[in-house]
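User: Structure tokens for this complex, please. No commentary.
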Amino acid sequence: MIVELGHFALLLALCVACVQGASVLLCRGLDEAEMSARRLATRAAHLQMALLLLAFLALAYAFYVSDFSVALVHANSHLAKPTIYKLAGVWGNHEGSMLLWVLMLAAYGAAFARFSHRLPDGFVGRSLMVQGWLGMAFLAFLIFTSNPFLRLDPAPFEGRGLTPILQDPALAAHPPLLYGGYVGFSLCFAFAIAALMQREVGRDWAQWVRPWILLAWISLTLGIALGSFWAYYELGWGGFWFWDPVENASLMPWLSGTALLHSALVMEKRRALVRWTLLLAILTFALSLSGTFLVRSGVLTSVHAFANDPARGVFILAILALFTGGGLALYAHRLPGLAAERGFVPVSREGFLLLNNVFLATATVTVFLGTIYPLVLDALALGKISVGAPYFNAVFAPLTLPFLLLMPLAPLMGWRQAMFMDGLQKLGAAALAALLVTGGFLLLRGDAPILPLLLLAASLWLVFGALTDLGVKLRPWMAGRMGARAWPSAGLFAAPLAHAGLGVMLVGVIAASVWRVEKVVAAAPGTRVDIAGYSLRYDGVRDLEGPNYRAETARLVYLNGSMAGAQLFPERRFYQAERGQTTEAAITKNLAGHLYAVIGEPVDDKRVLRIWYHPLVALIWLGGVLMALGGSFALRARIGKQCGAA
Amino acid sequence: MSQDLRPLKINQAKKKRLMVIAAGLVFLALAATLALTALEDNIVFFRSPSDIAATPPAPGEAIRIGGLVRNGSVTRDGLDVQFAVTDLAHDVSVAYRGMLPDLFREGQGVVVEGRFGAQGNFVADTVLAKHDETYMPPEVADALKAAGKYNPETTPYNAPDIDAHNMKGAAQ
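Assistant:
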């Protein structure tokens, strides 16, 4: 009954999305057509969101009570599964995750409708109309190719279970965060289309779009960081980023979304880069869509590609072509009619932000090339190839260096016109600190190739440069000139935090790649293993019974240093229901480095042990969190400003 | 455009714009060269055991081979493992040192990445297997199909819920 209710709500949501998509057309010719269209679209957006929430809750309920008469629950759940993974299983499969996708799309639409009361009718109405089109397309996709509410008759007694490596808390939160980013960029797309339809793009537009870019960007940043952390501890081979096509699919919208974030700033402050910003808004969402297409169509073999149904791939490809092609066609058509924009001089804040965009756009194209090229070759039957980490590392390292060197200067440059040397002078101390710390690394950790060392120094210079920038901004408060009661605005912290976050992340990436130590041994119980100054004793393996798995657990004991006596328990788990197996790494975490141990198969009376030392690896995710925090400060400042103005 | 009013200024602006465009093009060309060189150096081709029997690759060239682990071919000596990858028409014998991925089994699909040595022995630096008994890497299915040995009834393939992640089991 509840499942039927959910199914019905889903079908109704499609009808409501159609009304939302047709709102402008329906209200044509009425008195005050724009206001009516806006009202109609606003109500439709709220209703669509409520209906989809109902559908989602109904599906979650079916998973919660393990209703195996629902085909999706049967295929992806199991009675023995812990409740949290029954619920996370709602989006741990193709149909459910697409339902989450459309729910978030509707939620963004409803949130925009709710918080846009001071924006003009024509703009809000048209933006919501475009959101309605997106809703129609994806709801049709969901209902006609991947309906989550299909029943099985007779109902089976037991489900087939969820792929074991997905039964993990980080993975429960990863898809909603990632989708929060992908889908958030739909609003930027809708804004761009609405503005192009109206032939009106002013500085206001940038002001309206920035909070939504920020929200999507924060969500995507956290989603990617969490996915990387999960891959690090769950896959059991010690890496944090694999340049896997599925990861690249999320990195591309992040790169172009970051570019959009900065170009919208130039547009807002200086009324420049208007056309470029509009194009980026369209392309960023197009990249989000292609990410969804790559992951959902089965083009890539991946843990994310839950099903290989060609009809689905073709459907998503059609949606992608329709919205990207339509958006770009409208853009090309309306471009000549847009008002002229201002130029600017190269040495200025906006000049540096332009460089930022050049770099990020190049980076996006680079990732796109490496991700798409094997697919194109395969599709043309020109051979099967793989493009892996070596390609991306070879391109990214030299590309990033000049960008990192210039980045700390940008926030110290004034708008309109600035002096290069003024900025450079303020950063003298930062440069010195970066060189000293790099030297410290060399002394402590040993020699390294020149390119990573340069990158390390540049990343440190970015961190110290961001601190310098914060110091400059906070000087009036430090000197007590602002009076005791006035607090610095949240916006002051945004760029320094986000930039420092990137630097911190890169320091972690470089240190953990260059100075990581790895040891693989076949060990009998009692064997001693020495790695990175630690000594460990292997005590053998025993069997363990989990809630829905059996496990072999090994014990490793630290013999020396401050860790003496501490134990590590790496596991191998066997999930009977899913007939799958996972490696659970045991990790000693501290800021200086992670000791990471996994066990392998038995060899005679011995066990294969694989142990890594990853120096400073935690900085990678700490940096991601700092970036998201910086974004949150910017968002906070923006919302504060709007409330203050009301 | 008020060309006739301030021709000098317009020219300067044009010149400046040209400079910016030229700088952009130079940067783009550099980036493109970088990307294409990197692509050329780092592509890894996929070969089936039959391809290799027909046209043996040069020693030292990085390739991927997909197939099944031949029954009874796995021998271990501590960390050193030897096994044969087969598409049921031809075999390639593979040497590997390190930890094998979960569910590396005789008779199951596997993808190995590595190089042929001077003596014609293949040394793998990566062994990719899978986490799920019903899954077969598409490369392996294709290799078997090409050799005419693919049988969906007897070979346990194609549950698609697995990742390139999971497939990169052992040492990089």
